[in-house]
Amino acid sequence: MPSSPLRVAVVCMSNVNRSMEAHRVLRKNGFHVRSFGAGSHVRLPGGPCKPPVLYDFTPYKKMHSDLSSKDQKHYQRNGVLRILRRNERIKPGPERFQECPDPFDVIFTCGQRAYNRVVADLCARDQETWQPVPVVNMDIDDTLEAASLGASNICELCQGLQQADDMQSLTELLQAAKEKTGRSFLHTVCFY
Hints:
The protein has helices at 18-28, 60-77, 80-90, 112-124, 144-163, 168-181, and strands at residues 7-12, 32-37, 42-44, 53-55, 106-109, 132-137, 186-191. With 192 residues, the chain is of the alpha/beta class.
């Protein structure tokens, strides 16, 4: 693996909770990290007895303002406003993975749907350099607690990869993580 910090991408569907918590933790630990959503919209929980609120990939500040004007007490209570404020401190707004041409050393997804979309997108791209990139799925529930634990697990894997000699070590690291967490990790290698 590279001697400089890994270039890491973390992808969930909306680039709000799971990928942003991992972004925060990885950045704090010195990794070059970017986070993304793989969905077509940002999807946030709706108000009481209401459907989810959908946004285009728009700045976190705008979503925060809109939700505050709709039902500030509800969105304060369920933690969404706190998450959006945290995200504003990390970057201006959510980004779609499919719109990013930059290469990464490893890509983590936070759920099966995001994994499927990332792999499909990478396979559909014109391979220019044939640089391999492992794509690893870690199923993380979309809760604050699960996002925090998942971010720690992703960081541990990145630290192991940073010290590894080659890609073969990824399989060993994932096996060790499976034994530690009791979870298996879907993964594949795509190319740029």
